[in-house]
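Readers outside the structure-tokenisation community will struggle with the description of the input data as it stands. I therefore recommend that a typical entry be quoted early in the introduction. An entry of this sort, consisting of the sequence and the corresponding backbone structure tokens, reads as follows:
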Amino acid sequence: MQDKIFALSTAVGKSAVAILRMSGEGTKAALKEIFQPFPDKPNYLKYGNLTIDGLTDTAMLVYFDAPKSYTGEEMAEIHLHGSMPLVRLVSEKLFSLGFRTANNGEFTKRAYVNGKTNLSKAEGLADLVNAESLAALRAAGILARGGLGDIADGLQNDLTDCLARLEAALDYPEEDLEGAEMPLVEEILTSAQEKIDGLLRTARQGKTAKFGARVAIVGDVNVGKSSLLNAIVGYDRAIVSSVKGTTRDTIEESIDFKGIKFTFIDTAGQRETEDEIEMIGVRRAKAAMEDADIILFVSDDDSSEPDWIKRSPVPTIFVKSKGDKDPTRQKADIVVSGKTGENVQRLLEMIFDALGGRQVMTAPVLLTNQRHEECLTSAQECIKEAKSMIRDGVTADLIAATIRQAWQYVGQITGNTDMQTVVDAIFSKFCLGK
């Protein structure tokens, strides 16, 4: 990837400053034609003049030498005034100097190709840019800094150790290594399996961190669901009236609670109706329940929960509403008042706890990416199979083949799937003087 690329790295539109980023061989030489005085050393912003087709404006420029740059190539950034006509003028000049517009993610792709980052770090960077909550930002930052990648590397090292031991036993049968190595291989595999199990158990919290939680507010008609939504979000988001069936469609609103995004879905009351529009609302309410991470079943009578809520596999909090009229509680988990806001904060705390919010905000690593989860699940299955093969007395070559598959699946997390590293490890760890 030696061709020169550029892109506007700041938002499109009028602003105080716009930043154009460039990468590729010949970047410095091209920019010397339009910026003076050119910086005399890398990594420092230089104030100067940007001259294009007779127009001169002040700007700042910084360049980065290969390979000590984000992409591993020659790179530069021009910080110019945020006039879009000026940005277009500079862009047209860059085209004439041999640059082309970068594709989506191409700077980071070049960084990966040039060994400056790995796949999981790159995915973490994308998550970092798109984070909508503190929890998402924290999880993305850990991923971008290599938290999961470091664990994947460690797992691959463990599996490489297993392969090295098995290959040595196969290559030197006269040493009678197979009987001695199998128990050690099984022990290493068990440790790797436990590490993977621990990671997979964080997937639910990882989803909550990245995407937030969907909380469906359901119940019979006219029990205070919309009043509760309004009390939670702090303004009259939903229409509230004494007329049964006022809410006919789902209404969504999000808040940030202790760093986690909660999206509340107010739904139509569950009742038999001949009204076609209300029937659609009831169906949508059921769909919202199925898609929810947690359900708030709201009732102004907490004597019992209906069968349709008991059958739901989604975790449910039984909320008695209209606590300003009757504060007593029988079977409900909490009594609230949408009118006064009583216990609404406590309800949010209950949702936070039910979702494992403290783990979401404090865990050292969370699985936030379905691709990573699938890679680890596949690796786990291979490890289980390899352990079963050891117990059944299967030959070392077949066990090694299964472990190689696990190694490949783990390596897909970071992009390290080059089996040459296994070969190198075997020769570096086992020198038998042969």
About this structure: Confidence is low (pLDDT under 50) at residues 239-248, 429-434. The chain is about 45% helix and 20% strand.
